[in-house]
Amino acid sequence: VQLQASGGGLVQTGGSRRLSCAASGRPFGSYAMGWFRQVPGKEREFVAAHSDGNTYYADSVKGRFTISRDSAKNTVHLQMNNLKPEDTAVYYCAAGLASALVAGSPGSWGQGTLVTVSS
Q1: Using CB atoms within 10 A of its CB, is residue 52 exposed (0-12), middle (13-18) or buried (19+)?
Q2: Confidence (pLDDT) at 36
Q3: Tally of CA atoms within 13 A in the half-sphere of 5 that contains its CB
Q4: Is the model's pLDDT at 29 over the cut of 80?
């Protein structure tokens, strides 16, 4: 699966941003998709995943982030609301088995897109 992420940028605290990830190479419905993020010097962490209509979130983003899937466009979105400075990170799109995504080991990674939340 090839993944192309977009949507990063600079946003103020409390603001919103939507990330998108376009997938190609395999039937879109055959795998889960999700998002991870990484801050320099720290491990990449799971953010959210979408699989068979089910969604999964890290505790740190529950109630603020929403993952959605547009099957017609082979795209997954991450709507991020009420952003905080600690959300600043490079966000990576990922695809694979749902269990593997949540465990941090997806089969495919997209390039990262930087989100910077200013205080």
Answers
A1: exposed
A2: 97
A3: 24
A4: no
